[in-house]
Amino acid sequence: MVKKTKSKEIKDDTVTLTPEDAAAIADILQQMDGEVRELKRNKYSYLRSYKSRKFILSILGGIIILVNNRIGLNLSYEEIAMIAGLFSSFIFVEGTRDAIEARNKN
Fold first, then answer.
1. pLDDT digits (tens, 9 = 90+) for 35-88
2. Please, what is the Cα angle at 39 between 100 and 51, to 5 degrees?
3. For residue 86, what are the contacts with CB-CB under 8 A and spacing of at least 6?
4. Residue 103 domain flag
5. Do 56 and 106 share a domain, yes or no?
6. Can you give the pTM of this predicted structure?
7. CA-CA 20 to 30 A from 63: which of 17, 25, 35, 44?
8. Domain for residue 6, yes or no?
9. Residue 6: φ, ψ to 5°
10. Residue 10 phi, psi (nearest 5)
11. Cβ(69)–Cβ(76) under 8 Å?
12. Do 43 and 24 belong to one domain?
């Protein structure tokens, strides 16, 4: 079966590849597969970061500071500073621990 187009004729089922072409296509497909796997791995690690204690504490600290007077906590500046300092200290220690683990893993 021959299809006519504006520029040339295309014959169906008559694709001929040299071994070099086939190897090049296989290499490209393997590279694309690796890139897709890497993207999936990064996506899941990115989503996991939202469940981390550091992220949750930073959001919680921000919420406490922002809604202090709205919900009737009426915390003083010193109390808010203590809460923020406590959360910041925990986040710093956890981040340092994660960095040491990552360095030891590699």
1. 777 777 766 666 666 778 888 888 998 888 888 878 888 888 899 899 999 999
2. 55
3. none
4. yes
5. yes
6. 0.51
7. 44
8. no
9. -65, -35
10. -120, 120
11. no
12. yes
| CA angle (66 as vertex; 60, 71 as ends), nearest 5 | 90
| 32's tokens | 């694309």
Beta bridge partners of 11: 2
Q: Which of 34, 31, 12, 14 is nearest to 23 (CA)?
A: 31
Tell me how long the chain is: 106
In the chain, how many domains are there? 2
Q: At what angle do helices 53-66 and 77-105 cross, to 10 degrees?
A: 160
Whether 91 is covered by a domain: the verdict is: yes
pLDDT at position 93: 92
Contact 24, 61 (CB under 8 A): no
* Pair (71, 91) in one structural domain: yes
Is residue 49 a contact partner of residue 94, using CB atoms and an 8 Å limit? no
Q: Are both 36 and 81 inside the same structural domain?
A: no
